[in-house]
Automatic annotation (TrEMBL):
Residue ranges with Acidic residues bias: 138-158
UniProt keyword Ribonucleoprotein, yes or no: yes
InterPro entries hit by this protein: Ribosomal_bS16, Ribosomal_bS16_dom_sf
GO biological process, one term: translation
Origin: domain of life: Bacteria
Region listing for Disordered, in residue ranges: 86-158
Keywords from the UniProt entry: Ribonucleoprotein, Ribosomal protein
GO molecular function, one term: structural constituent of ribosome
Family classification: Belongs to the bacterial ribosomal protein bS16 family.
Gene assigned in the entry: rpsP
Biased composition annotated in UniProt, kind: Basic and acidic residues: 101-134
A GO-annotated cellular component: cytoplasm
Identification of the protein by name: Small ribosomal subunit protein bS16
Organism from which the protein derives: Henriciella mobilis
Presence of keyword Transferase: no
Length: 158
């Protein structure tokens, strides 16, 4: 029989109150349990002594017998010390890599960045070409004038 130390919800609608119980893992959340070892009232302030009340010795006994606490209860039990040690060593349960995008999303981001870089490069080339076009007619006029002057001089010489 797999044992769990978990929360069983009580209280009325929008007024939660939980019992910390040791139950068979197959039993319903609010159903049959083996032993009640504490309470949890989430409506009380976090610094209130009555918010979480768990009998640490009973909890330690059940953990020694093989009962596995749920994440929330493990967090509560890690704050309770029996014989100078926490009942359960709780570690932060979130996976920091869980929120990272997948490989396809990373590929899409990379493609988008490549397209943006190519677009900026094309804009820079277009600006350079426009500047050259502005400067080029002025330079082209000068040789055209020089040719016209050279023709005029040839005509005078003849």
């Amino acid at each position: 029989m797999a044992l769990k130390i978990r929360l069983a919800r009580g209280g009325s609608k929008k007024r939660p109150f939980y019992r910390v119980v040791v139950a068979d893992s197959r039993a319903p959340r609010d159903g049959r349990y083996i032993e009640k070892i504490g309470t949890y009232d989430p409506r009380l302030p976090k610094d209130s002594e009555n918010r979480v009340q768990i009998d640490g010795e009973k909890a330690a006994e059940w953990v020694k017998k093989g009962a596995k606490p749920t994440d929330r209860v493990a967090r509560f039990l890690s704050a309770i010390e029996v014989d100078g040690k926490p009942v359960v060593a709780w570690e932060h349960g979130n996976n920091p890599q869980k929120g990272e995008p997948g490989t396809k999303a990373k590929e899409r981001v990379q493609e988008k960045a490549d397209k943006e870089a190519a677009r900026k490069e094309a804009e820079e080339e277009a600006k350079k070409a426009a500047e050259e076009a502005k400067n080029a007619p002025a330079e082209e006029e000068a040789p055209a004038e020089a040719e016209a002057e050279a023709e005029a001089e040839e005509e005078k010489a003849e």
